[in-house]
Amino acid sequence: MSFIAPHYHKAKQHSIIRFLKRDRYWIKTPGWLKKLYPGCIWDMPKEEKILYLSFDDGPHPTITPFVLNELSKYQASASFFCIGDNVLKHPATFELLKQSGHTIGNHTQQHINGWKSSDKYYIENIIKANESIQSTLFRPPYGRIKKSQIKLLKQEMPGMKIIMWNILAGDWDAEIAPEICFERMKNKIKSGDIIVFHDSEKAAPRMQVALPQLLAHFSTLGYQFKKIKE
Ligand SMILES: [Zn+2]
User: Residue 8 has what pLDDT?
Assistant: First the structure.
């Protein structure tokens, strides 16, 4: 398998080509994939009814505050994996995020793909992002990181933990109707799952529908929402 998480570009193409080239991803991460990356965290303890929401690719000046507002309705904490360039572009939103008490994590400076980057360039990009983000948690963009990069990261930034996920909302996927984004993951979500959404323009049409549904549904079932601690 050569895919973990999808890519973001879609051209208008013939339908069969489009079918073959479609973004493919697992809503629930398969166990064998987790075993391929033992140096990474894929889920959290399952004993209590706790879910770990995470939001990648921000901060964004309107979408991130939307998320913060929704979370506050349920006293929910979450983790935000920020892109360094977006932190520099939107310092006030980043400040708001920091003040909100949620966890902030590193998602590289320019959202680079580990599989397409040299190890040195990849680690330098993470170090650059940490000048502004200052976190001990890292999430690889697209979930794509080479084993050699994991090793080098642990050498260069010894305290850094790599946080993957157990559930992908697929909120970036424009082929998914906003109303079904939550429906298709609802029955796959279990205690201790790390769930990925995006506070980005591309994902907003689906995230802004699915996130309130998820919060309402699982809080009614007695779940709490917590951040991943540094
Ligand atoms: Zn990302």
Answer: 47
Angle, CA 118 vertex, CA 116 and CA 121 arms, to 5°: 110
Q: Residues 174, 180, 182, CA angle at the centre, nearest 5°?
A: 105
Question: Tokens 């157990």 identify what position?
Answer: 166
- Could you please report the per-residue DSSP string of 159-205? T-EEE--SEE--TT-TTS-HHHHHHHHHTT--TTBEEEEE-STTTHH
Ligand 1 centre and the CA of 197: distance in Å?
9
* Predicted pLDDT at 89: 98
Q: pLDDT tens across 128-182, in order? A: 999 999 999 999 999 999 999 999 999 999 999 999 999 999 999 999 999 999 9
> Phi-psi region for residue 101, left (φ > 0), alpha (ψ -120 to 50) or beta?
left
Rg (CA), the chain: 17
CATH class of 25-225: alpha beta
What does the CA dihedral 99, 181, 223, 163 come to, rounded to 10 degrees?
-60
Distance 24 CA to ligand 1 centre (A): 16
The string of DSSP letters for 17-70 reads HHHHHS----SB--HHHHHH-TTEE-B---SSSEEEEEEES---TTHHHHHHHH
* Distance from the alpha carbon of residue 112 to the mean position of ligand 1, in angstroms: 9
CA of 57 to the centre of ligand 1 (A): 5
If you measure from the C-alpha of residue 9 to the centroid of ligand 1, how many angstroms do you get, rounded to a whole number?
13
Cβ-based burial of 16 (10 A; exposed 0-12, middle 13-18, buried ≥19): exposed
